[in-house]
Amino acid sequence: MARLVNTLVMIFMTVLLFLFADEILITFFKQNAFVSEIAIQYCIICTPGIWAMTQFDATKRFLSAQKHGSIPFLTQLMTCILQLGCAYVFIVRFQWGVLGAALATNIVYIGNMIITDFWVSLHAEG
Known about the structure:
Strand content: under 5%
Number of domains: 1
Structural class: mainly alpha
Number of helices: 6
């Protein structure tokens, strides 16, 4: 149920945010227009990863309630190290800039979700 609610809320909030992103960043936060455009690009590219992060968070809370809080912790530790490597390769080696940073973030968030879901499916009772 938490995954469904997360998905529905995220879709609504994401559409709302992207519709008014320029106004929010430039008018409300007094952000530079160039920096605002880069931030919007990053957020749009990270949308799949953000969805995966909300799904991971639901699984993380479930595992914590089941006294398996070390699984999400170890997963995040591994993917954090992976992100450093991916960010270096994508941003420094391939010169992908914002795209590289967003892809590295997506890999981490999606990786967190896949690893914890896989662990839960392996240890599911019944």
